[in-house]
TetR family transcriptional regulator (Lentzea atacamensis), 516 residues
Amino acid sequence: MPNELVWDRPEPPSKPSPTPLSRDLIVNAAIRLADEGGLDEVSLRKVAAALNAGPMRLYGYIETKDELLDLMVDEVYREITPPRPSVGWRTGLRHVAHGIRDAAKRHEWFIDLLSPRPHQGPHSLAHIEATLATVQFEDIDQVLSAVGAVMAYVYGAVRGEITELRAERSTGMTEEQWQRASGPYMERMLATGRFPTLARVMYESSDRDPAQVFDEGLDYVLDGIAARHDTTRKHIPGSKPGGSASAPSAPSPAPAGR
Amino acid sequence: MPNELVWDRPEPPSKPSPTPLSRDLIVNAAIRLADEGGLDEVSLRKVAAALNAGPMRLYGYIETKDELLDLMVDEVYREITPPRPSVGWRTGLRHVAHGIRDAAKRHEWFIDLLSPRPHQGPHSLAHIEATLATVQFEDIDQVLSAVGAVMAYVYGAVRGEITELRAERSTGMTEEQWQRASGPYMERMLATGRFPTLARVMYESSDRDPAQVFDEGLDYVLDGIAARHDTTRKHIPGSKPGGSASAPSAPSPAPAGR
DNA sequence: TATCGCTCGATACACTGTATCGCTATAAGA
DNA sequence: TCTTATAGCGATACAGTGTATCGAGCGATA
């Protein structure tokens, strides 16, 4: 039958791409794609294509796409240097906060993947271990509470920054421009007079350095924690640990410079 | 030809479903689907099917799927009762925090849609207007900073709760069970001894009421704000907004990696 | 009654994640 | 060296997704 076509077979199927391949190669390729074109660019077909492989090949190294995403998250955690254990809780938590924020700025997709699933990868665990270890309150519940609050704030703040950043990019304007010019829609809304405070915010607020705003919010949280759990207060002068406060038997909160 | 099939045409195309349809109907149908089966259940085909309509019909009322998602978010904002303007910033912000948390508990998909895009719907704007209005610091930047920090915390905390809740549901275990039994994986990890603090958290921490934990974290933030901006302090006794208390003008000591 | 316009939705397209399974290139056995 | 078993690869297929296109049918107007 198709014998006559035998001669122009497109290629000897031998070896157009016998690249060895490995989990790390796959994860790194996926990260590169995500960094360049966003999470949408990470499809099994595209990742495979970037490695000169067919889509199904990946399933030899990866169970499902979600697993790939988990691995990407853990890889980012790997690049975040954990706090050294001796630095004291406040410095430690601040370090962690900045580490995550910086990582999220490098990999804008990071924050999108953080939420869906709890991170159980080895580097994630190491990072959270180091984080917890810097907070040496005597009551473990206090530790959890403090770290949890800081992480919640960091997560929300970073998410907000990234969201805003994307919005600016998609409209091609800075946020200030956007708020003042944003289509006729926003102006019409504000012109109704139903949102006076909002209008004041838009027109009167100075657009401050995002990093500074982030730190200010972070300080709120840290101050709040200090006021309740820490005996070696730093930012809030004169306030005493409210009545029921903990006993000062903390092991060694010593600031331990660096 | 197919003339003989004419007799069992599925329907006279006249009017199997001339339901009037409207944006609200569509949005409500989508919300119902999302409440029952999660965001995955919200596809244009399924929403349309729930309204006895073809998928393309929706495009008469909606520009794109993202617009539908925006409308869903705004609809949820509508059910959140805004704070009354007179209540004072602390009560007001706490009210807002609980309002969002409760809404996110009613509609688990809500938090997933909050992030991606800034909310510009009328109810979203009304809600944020009311929120800002309760915080009457003299400096508008202080207002923004305070509200922003609280919202960031709320967002992160709620996201964490929902994530945890889903994880529990998918494994069919409570978090405590999950942490202690979670597959052999977690146990093996903890058994390595590389995560002593984490292990302590898992085994020694009491699993507290989530609402209480949420409030505790919220109080950290509110206390921190009060310490800096409010003259009518409530929770932290004795501390004055003394000039020197303000943010560390020196850009954080940054223990930076190395 | 004839025509216009509009609204509807069937069809199609490009894309997704993944199950199935035949092919092929290699390793083992005789 | 020749044959056979094994394993990995990836073409194909399937059920979805959001949306562009466009022909068909209806109601209202001339």
